[in-house]
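lol ok so funny story. i was supposed to be doing the assay writeup but got distracted and ended up predicting the structure for this chain instead. priorities right. anyway since i did it might as well share w the group, maybe its usefull for someone
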Amino acid sequence: MKELVIISGKGGTGKTSITASFALLARSPVLADCDVDAADLHLLLAPEVIEKHEFRSGREAVIREQDCTGCGVCLTECRFDAVGVYQPDGGGSVYVVDPVACEGCGVCVRFCPEGAIDFPECVCGEWMISRTRSGPMVHAKLGVAAENSGKLVSTVRQEAKRIAEENGHDLVIVDGPPGIGCPVIASLTGASQVLAVTEPTVSGDHDLERVLELARHFGIPTAVCVNKWDINPEMTERIEKKAQESGASIAGRVRYDPSVTKAQMEVKAVVETDAPAADDIRRVWESLGL
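and the output, tada:
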């Protein structure tokens, strides 16, 4: 079983549009949308959710008001200013924990003399298994202000691989997150091949360098695709030359095509339309040899 991870150094390069097209061009793949902070592959493939699961990670302090004596130890010990105190109309002091500010360190739980602070596991989001017209898909949604997106990415990948193994699929296609942070590292490790999608701009060139360095660190064969290459041919040549010098191969180029936006509005992958860019994407797919 092979795993192709499609990433980009920055958002908005066309990574998800290319991923959706690959999903239609591949033979019976399993899809994984690992951009859990801003998932959007579902907007093109219209999945039918068949399973939904809570994602739990980290812990959050909760003060039991009926057991709190108002000693203020938690307020003093908290280094993240997550504990607050207010005076109700009836008098006294009520201590509460701000769930957004709480880092889940557990210091207040440890030092509370009355044992009046609970420390439950947090629900940080949810992950789903769905059916699409191109095959099964595992995707997720991280909660508002929630953390541990790298762990959620790992969960999505593990489930996608499990489905592939149990049902005899020989390819997993991962729509990875942009950048080089923890979610990207969680998407890359152990992958068979990486496709880095970039655009011919100064920021696209700079961010691609960082992505290629990350992939090289993990020893993963990497190919580069320049999307909308014809808006700046000189920059495209520069990017491709630098990519080859760093050890990456060139998978191909995709032209700027307003029909891509039209396909998105119709909830279609580009290769499901007669857009000129569809031929470019097909050539990129063929160059990957999957």
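The chain has a mean pLDDT of 94. The chain has ten helices and 13 strands.
back to the writeup now i swear
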